[in-house]
Amino acid sequence: MKLLMCKDISVYDFESFSILNIDLLPGILQVDCSAQNINAWCQGRYSQKSNSYARVQRAREYPHSSPEEIDRLSGAFSLSDCYWIQTKPGSSFRKLSPYFEDNWKDGISTANIYTNGWQSKRWVSPNWLYKYGSKNEMEIMRLARLAGLTSVEVKIEGDGILVENFTNTDIMFEPADMSALFYDDAEEDIPLPRVENVIEKLGIFGEQMLLFDNIVGNWDRHLGNFGFLRDSNTGKVLSAAPLFDFEHSEEQTLRRPEVMSIVRCCKNKPVLTDMCNRIYVNTDSYIYRTNCSAAIEMINGVG
Questions:
Q1: pTM strictly above 0.90
Q2: Which residue from 107, 130, 227, 296 has the fewest beta carbons nearer than 10 Å?
Q3: Residue 69: inside a domain
Q4: Vertex 254 angle, CA 249 and 259, to 5°
Q5: pLDDT tens digits along 48-103
Q6: What would you measure as the largest C-alpha separation in the chain, in angstroms?
Q7: 165, 130 in Cβ contact below 8 A?
Q8: In the chain, how many domains are there?
Q9: pLDDT tens, 214-253?
Q10: Are 292 and 188 in a shared domain?
């Protein structure tokens, strides 16, 4: 027995290769439920090796176990969605899911092992993720909210920050790379989404996200760093997910060719101009202000 579950609904049978509920499948599997895509989806759940906290926890709790064995033993639970792998009859989402803190062991959640991203991080509760050494994100998140962008709540905690979880047992996150709706630029070392594709799928939010990233020097908006919110009961796509993960942002001048691509594809130039003006008046950064001025000139100069 090996079933992919969404809460307590069976969506895929790994042993018979059968789709049991297509509406609740991850987007990439709705399009093509091939062995390659199933493996990509499973691998995409794991924390990266650079996440030292998850690496230590994995070695301590599952020494010498393969990823497949860890999935079987842990259920592959995350605190970003409601998927898990059922291998025993009678097991349930409520009895095992880390969304319920009484399922944690000694205050530690196995969801740490399935929390992606480069930075070392750990869940301190179902509602808050602690990221080590990411204080620079505080100012950028502040600017994002003042600029009218939906972004996650963050607050300083010790040597890092606490990031609020924007998912729950009814709303789950599907990253762009698992949605099958986006394609990347194969020429980049880290595959980045193409401007026209993001704007086509996300509309005005995509325009704002891409331009904001340029203004604050965030060159890490890869396909795992944005996506959609889905209803975990119906599978319906609800909206774009709030912006998160600005840990690699640096004060750098605009990438003018990319901004030009954004401006040429966008359909909401007044909104982008307003966003730039809001950032300009709410930051003390000379670079950010210079970038806002340059972006406005480019917006006004392209017909």
A1: yes
A2: 107
A3: yes
A4: 110
A5: 777 888 889 999 999 989 988 999 999 999 999 999 999 999 999 999 999 999 99
A6: 63
A7: no
A8: 2
A9: 999 998 888 889 999 999 999 999 999 999 988 888 888 8
A10: yes
